[in-house]
Write a structure and sequence with these properties.
2 domains; 434 Repressor (Amino-terminal Domain); 12 helices
């Protein structure tokens, strides 16, 4: 497994392999993931790490597990994949994607019980849409709740050495790592979007302060 880059970015050495295997061009995959083509090129070429939430989106679009994108394939495998073109996703690949939703469901139940909220279990796109439809006060509360959730989850995983447990399935480890690594980049972005559309001076100042606290 490739280690995360500085700043929480994940290396995705298997992205090119699976993009070609699924028959996508860089431009098409970037469009479907709502990314700049240059950003996708840098991630695929290893010139930068990928935001954990974006990595999950790419895994879903390619119908593979995140660990598949973090696995390095040899040149022969990548070349062979490029000749296959678009192909239907296999049963096992679909199963791995389904497992991620199971992980999210368990995390949601766990966080709701222990912390009282479960924003950290939401997909990035779902959370962004949620915040777009809410007043700035609610966005601020969602970010504060996520901070409590991430801190609690980090303590539990660190104290119990869960991520170092050899019996922990790799897809579960990758999922939990991505949840932790999404903070605070995602939260700063949520606050920045809310600040751009807020009209009151009070809201602008509160959101600016909250962003500063996360930096």
């Amino acid at each position: 497994m490739a280690p995360p880059r500085r700043g929480g970015g994940l290396r995705l050495p298997g992205l090119k392999h699976w993009r070609r295997r699924r028959g996508f061009t860089q431009r098409e995959l970037a469009r479907r993931a709502d990314l700049a083509e240059g950003y996708l090129w840098k991630v695929e070429s290893g010139r930068r790490g990928c935001n954990p939430s974006v990595a999950h989106v790419l895994a879903e679009l390619l119908e593979v597990d995140l660990q598949d994108l973090r696995t390095k394939y040899d040149a022969h495998e990548v070349q062979a994949a490029s000749t296959e073109g678009a192909q239907a996703a296999s049963g096992p690949a679909r199963s791995r994607v389904a497992y991620r939703h199971v992980h999210q469901a368990y995390l949601r139940i766990f966080l709701e019980r222990e912390v009282g909220s479960s924003y950290a279990a939401m997909d990035e796109g779902v959370l962004e849409k949620h915040c777009e439809e809410r007043a700035w006060e609610e966005v601020l509360e969602a970010v504060r709740a996520r901070k409590r959730e991430i801190e609690f989850l980090g303590e539990v995983l660190e104290d119990g050495e869960v991520l170092q447990d050899r019996d922990l399935p790799e897809e579960v480890r990758s999922f939990l790592e991505a949840v932790l690594e999404s903070y605070p980049d995602l939260d700063i972005r949520l606050l920045a979007v809310a600040r751009r559309r807020v009209l009151s001076e009070e809201g602008h100042e509160a959101l600016t302060k909250a962003m500063g606290d996360l930096l």
